[in-house]
Amino acid sequence: MSDEVRRGFVPTDAVDFDEPKLVLLRRAEDDLRSLLDRGYPMEGAASLVGNHYQLTARQRLAIVRATASHSQLAARRERLLPEETVSREILIDGLNVIITLETALSRSTVFRCMDGTVRDLAAVRGSYRIIGHTHTAIRLLGDYLEEIGAAHVTVYLDAPVSNTGRLKTLLATCYEHRRFETHIELVPNADAMLRGKADIITSDAVLLDQCQSWRNAAAEIIAKRIREVRPVPLDEPVRCPDAADGRIYVAVKGILVEDGKALIAERSDRPGWWEFPGGTMEFGENTEQTLVREFREEMGLCVEPAKLLCEYTVRLNPAYQIVVLTYLCRRTQAGEVKLSSEHLSYQWADRGTMRALLMADIRDALDRNKLWDIVL
Question: Is the model more confident about 316 or about 284?
C-alpha cells in the first residue's frame, strides 16, 4: 500500500494529451458529438472518428468517456443537483468515485468532460487493490458527505471485483465516527442497484442517463480539495473547420457588480486567465438564456441580464472566430458563489484588480466602449 503506486498512470499520456494533441482531440469530440446527435451508436461513431483522426487507444477511450449528445447533456444538467442542495439519503457508486479520486491524487490523467464530470482512464479489469491514496480518497469523500448534510449513506461495491471486501472493511473503519450513518453493500452489480434512483453519486454515463438525480461529487472534490490537479479539458469541443469554411460562434458573458466590485473567475484549463462568467450559446438558446444558464452552472448564482454593454470578436484561429456579447446583469435570488470545475477560483475585483488580472481582449473591450465608469 505504498504511496508510490499511481492509480491509472501511463507514461505515454504526456504525449497523447499534450497541447497539440488536445486541439486534435477537441476536433474529434465535435465530430463524435455530431454523429451522436444524428443517432449513430457510440461504438460505431467512435471507431469512425478514431480512425479518421488516427487516435491512439487511450485517446479514443478519452473522447468516448468525455463526449455525449446535446440531448444527453441537457437531460444530465436537468438531473444534476446544485451543490447547496441538502440530501439526507445518498447512494454511492463506490469504485467509480474512489478510483477517480485515487487517480487524481496519483497525479495520473483525469478529464473534465462535456457533462461537467471528471473521469479517469484507470482500468480495474476485475481486480482492485488498495493503494496509499485510497485512505485520502475515502477521507475526502467523507468530508464532502458531511458538507452536504448527508444523514444516511449507502455505498455499493461490485462483489465480483476482487478485494472489494477489503475496501468495504476500510470504508467502514474510516466512516465509523462520521456524522452520517453508513451502509456498505457488496452486490453483484452496483449499476443495477443505482439505476433509476435519486441522489446518487457517480460519473458513470449510463447511470447519469437513467437516474432521477445525481451529484457531481468527484469533480467538486477535485476542484476544491485537490486543486493542484489540472484535469485535461475535454469539456468544450472546438470546431476547427478549414479556412474556406470559416464559421462564427457566439459567447455570452455577464458582469455582476456588488459593492463597487465585479465578479471575475480564474479558468481551470488556463490557470492565470481571468474572465467574467459566461460561455458559448447552445443550439436553441437566445443570448439571455445562455447568460442565465452559464451563471447557474459556473457560479451557482441566479441572475438576469440588465443591459447589453458591448460586443467584440476574438480570432483564435484563421478558420473561425468567436463573437462575445457582454451584459451587465443583476441577481434574481440571493446565494453564495459555488464554483463548478470550470474555474479554479473567483474574487470580487475593483478596477485596479481587473486591469491587472483580466485577459487583454476583455480589458480592450472595456476601454474601447468606455465601460469602466458604467461597470464600476
Answer: 284
